[in-house]
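Quick note —
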Amino acid sequence: MLSAVEVKKIAHLARLGIEEQNVAAYADDLNGVLALMTQMSELDTKGIKPMAHPMDQVQRLRVDEVTETNQRDYFQKIAPQTEDGLYLVPQVIG
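Predicted structure written out below.
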């Protein structure tokens, strides 16, 4: 069981701001999640095939076709600096 002190420490490490009056509720929620994880880790999963999706559905894909006009030349003209078809940008890391 996580205590209020441990929840505050976790929040600090995660850089999360938790108001004092909410610490107990967060502790209860986190303890519930940890209890569920413990319960799930005790299940026998031998022979169970891993799944990418619990509904065993196929993702419907759209047709791969061009839907916009090529505006490369326009964008090259309005860019501050270009060279050989590339955009020149200021060096950020020295």
